[in-house]
């Protein structure tokens, strides 16, 4: 349990740090203290020792710098840095060297070079083939440590598919659906996963602890100085898919109730209008919800391709989760109203909250229906999202007419 719990904690930190870096970079534009960065979708900077902050569709940074903050669709860094490096984007490639920490998040993250501080990485695909003077913490769908990886401190990694090679000077904690370890570790190695394999070049200076339901595959050529211990995985790993679905349903209902309580209190008028749209115009509201779900990502993508609109693009992407949550609360309350009150009379905050509570619980139960449940909930959320968008747009039009 230590492997996945300890690795999940820092890797969540890595993702939060990456998102924070992304927001701070794009909201401040792009600039280099010693030399202004060029304007346009392609930003190319040759550092001269000062701090660099850059954002663009394609960012390429070389030279020397005291620190680097970079974000974009494609970010390439090959510089000598005396401080920390932070990067975020769809494709992030970092090389060179940094005396401070490295924090990177993206769709694909590739890291080479040398880093004196801690390394935090998160992404769909992460490839690490670098020298790290301290700990390395990574989360991703697919994570690969290359054969020239050299990590002096602790290694924590969590992924669906995890491959580990290279050298590790500290303890190693791994978790994943499929884990293949073929590296050299000076200390203990703890692995928790569905399928675990130890390769022929594996050298472990301490104990090898494997937590899995399936018998692990250990190559005869692997060398383990300590004990090899195979145990059942942690309690949460043993939970069935149905149990996880039930847990998610409870969390979904609780989140909907909390968000609804805030929305009803903070934006009562808009919430009531959205409730009427969802009740009286469910089909057109659902259509608007579909259009919103399609158009916002497309517009955000187009804005991200430009320097002028990159901040607005990220703002639109951050707006989408709020619209979905608001839509969920609206349709849940609508269901409660349909069940208990079809009079159309004014409703107090307390009555609306009771309807929200009933609707959220019913939607959580519907979610548990095999196959069809998730589809029904998605359609309902689209109706609520469309109703909320209609309500907000109508109020904005009325306000602009008064100005």
Topology:
Elements: H1 2-27, E1 31-32, E2 42-48, E3 52-65, E4 68-81, E5 85-98, E6 102-115, E7 119-132, E8 136-145, E9 150-151, E10 155-164, E11 167-168, E12 172-181, E13 184-185, E14 189-198, E15 203-204, E16 208-211, E17 217-218, E18 223-224, E19 228-231, H2 235-238, H3 241-266, H4 268-280, H5 282-304, H6 310-340, H7 349-367, H8 372-402
Parallel strand pairs: 2-3, 3-4, 4-5, 5-6, 6-7, 7-8, 7-9, 8-10, 9-11, 10-12, 11-13, 12-14, 13-15, 14-16, 14-17, 15-18, 16-19
Antiparallel strand pairs: 1-3
Q: What tags apply to this protein structure?
A:
disordered N terminus, 403 residues, 2 domains, 8 helices, 19 strands, flat, alpha/beta, 19-stranded mixed β-sheet
Report on the architecture of this protein.
The protein is α/β, with parallel strands linked by helices. The chain has 2 domains: 2-237, no CATH class; 241-402, no CATH class. 43% of the residues lie in helices and 34% in strands. The protein is built from 8 helices and 19 strands. It has a 19-stranded mixed β-sheet that branches. α5 crosses α8. The radius of gyration is 25 Å and the shape is flat.
Radius of gyration: 25 Å
Q: Largest sheet at a glance?
A: 19 strands, mixed
How far from one another are the termini?
Answer: 60 Å
Q: Which structural class should the secondary elements be placed in?
A: alpha/beta
What is the number of helical segments per DSSP (H or I, 4+ residues)? Answer: 8
Proportion of residues in β-strands = 25-35%
Low-confidence runs: 1-40
Please identify the oligomeric state.
single chain
The tally of strands reads 19
**SSE topology string:** HEEEEEEEEEEEEEEEEEEEHHHHHHH
Mean pLDDT: 83
Q: How much helix is in the residues?
A: 40-55%
Shape: flat
Number of domains: 2
């Amino acid at each position: 349990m230590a492997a996945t719990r300890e690795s999940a904690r820092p890797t969540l930190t890595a993702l939060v740090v990456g998102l924070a870096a992304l927001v701070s970079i794009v909201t401040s534009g792009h600039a280099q203290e010693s030399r202004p960065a060029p304007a346009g979708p392609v930003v190319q900077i040759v550092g001269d020792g000062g701090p660099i902050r850059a954002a663009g569709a394609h960012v390429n940074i070389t030279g020397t710098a005291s620190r680097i903050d970079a974000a974009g669709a494609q970010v390439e860094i090959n510089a000598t840095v005396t401080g920390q490096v932070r990067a975020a984007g769809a494709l992030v490639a970092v090389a060179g060297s940094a005396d401070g920490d490295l924090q990177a998040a993206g769709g694909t993250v590739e890291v080479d070079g040398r880093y004196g501080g801690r390394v935090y990485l998160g992404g769909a695909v992460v490839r690490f083939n670098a020298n790290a003077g301290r700990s390395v913490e990574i989360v991703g769908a697919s994570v690969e440590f290359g054969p020239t990886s050299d990590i002096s401190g602790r290694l924590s990694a969590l992924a669906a598919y995890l491959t580990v090679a290279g050298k590790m000077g500290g303890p190693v904690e791994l978790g994943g659906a499929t884990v293949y370890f073929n590296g050299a570790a000076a200390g203990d190695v703890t692995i928790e996963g569905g399928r675990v394999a130890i390769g022929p070049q594996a050298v472990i200076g301490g104990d090898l602890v494997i937590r899995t339901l399936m018998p692990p595959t250990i190559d005869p050529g692997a060398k383990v100085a300590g004990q090899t211990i195979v145990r059942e995985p942690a309690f949460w790993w043993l939970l069935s898919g149905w149990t996880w679905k039930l847990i998610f349903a409870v969390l979904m209902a609780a989140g909907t109730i909390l968000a609804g309580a805030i929305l009803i209190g903070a934006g009562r008028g808009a919430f009531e209008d959205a409730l009427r749209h969802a009740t009286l115009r469910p089909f057109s509201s659902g259509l608007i919800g579909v259009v919103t779900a399609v158009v916002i990502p497309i517009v955000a993508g187009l804005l991200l391709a430009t320097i002028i609109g990159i901040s607005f693009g990220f703002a639109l992407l951050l707006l989408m989760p709020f619209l979905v949550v608001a839509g969920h609360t609206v349709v849940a309350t609508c269901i409660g109203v349909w069940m208990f009150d079809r009079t159309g009379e004014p409703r107090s905050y307390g009555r609306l909250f009771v309807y929200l509570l009933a609707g959220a619980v019913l939607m959580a139960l519907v979610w548990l229906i095999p196959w069809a449940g998730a589809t029904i909930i998605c359609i309902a959320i689209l109706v609520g999202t469309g109703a909320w968008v209609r309500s907000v747009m109508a109020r904005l039009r009325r306000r602009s007419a008064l100005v």
